[in-house]
Amino acid sequence: MSRKAIIFDLDGVIVDTAKYHYLAWRELANQLGFDFTTEQNERLKGVSRVRSLEILLDIGKVHLEEDQKTTYLKEKNEQYLQYIAKMDHSEILPGIDDLLHYLKLNKVPFSLGSASKNARLILETLDLIDLFDAIVDGNDVSTAKPDPEVFLIAAKKLGVPAEDCIVIEDAQAGIEAANKAGMTSIGIGDAAILHEADFMLSNTSELTIDFIQKLIA
Q1: pLDDT surpasses 80 at 2
Q2: Which of 65, 137, 177, 178 has an alpha carbon within 20 to 30 A of 191's alpha carbon?
Q3: pTM, whole model, 2 decimals?
Q4: Coil, strand, or helix at residue 115?
């Protein structure tokens, strides 16, 4: 029997840092003279920081020079880091802590596959970093999701073929990337948005040990 491995996205799968991204982007939008809604924020899910700023500026019809963009990106990230520094274990999404410990105990290899450049910092803050067999984040990739690069690097680090990897994602771009990589995809969230996923769950509490056992059996 071939060995299966699991690749977890971070935001919206292990922890909900999306709310902190939203608050930091909204502050930046307000600073630039316009408002930014939670609905508009959906467009930033699973998207790189640079592309997120472009979308935000497009929403606000604001033009910035390249050096101004760099300054604002730095400001946004510093604001976001202030939020996540206050996070604790209670912010791990339902069922995830038990699942990670189950996988570790049963020697099922698993990795992080996230666009976030702050992923390692977040996992350290939550005391989860030592559980992971591999971590691939925004510092390790040259192309963002929906390109499959992040997941292919994770598979390589885990020493497991792509077709034996199961990706858990909450963003459309992530599901697309997993499918392009030839991996099994599990979508967490809105079925209308994540309809291309092989399996669909409404939230992480449905990501039970029993469900995962059946997938890796």
Answers
A1: no
A2: 137
A3: 0.86
A4: coil
Which of 11, 133, 137, 170 is labelled catalytic? 11
What is residue 117's predicted lDDT score, i.e. its pLDDT? 87
**pLDDT tens sequence across 46-63:** 788 899 999 999 999 999
1 band by pLDDT with thresholds 50, 70 and 90: low
What is the structure's pLDDT at 168? 98
What residue type is 83 in one-letter code?
Y
Kindly give the pairing relationship between strand 134-136 and strand 110-113.
parallel
Residue 190 is among the residues annotated as catalytic for this protein: no
Q: What is the pLDDT of residue 18?
A: 81
Would you say residue 146 has pLDDT above 90?
Answer: yes
C-alpha–C-alpha distance, residues 168 and 178, integer Å: 9
Catalytic residue among 9, 133, 137, 170: 9
Same domain (yes/no): 80, 179: no
Catalytic residue at 198?
no
136 pairs with which residues across the strands? 113
Single-letter code of the amino acid located at 110? F
Clarify whether residues 143 and 159 are in a common domain: yes
Which range of residues forms the domain containing residue 61?
Answer: 18-84
113 and 206 assigned to the same domain: yes
Give the residue carrying structure tokens 């699942």. Answer: 99
Number of domains in the chain: 2
The candidate with the shortest Cα–Cα distance to 212, out of 178, 184, 170, is 184
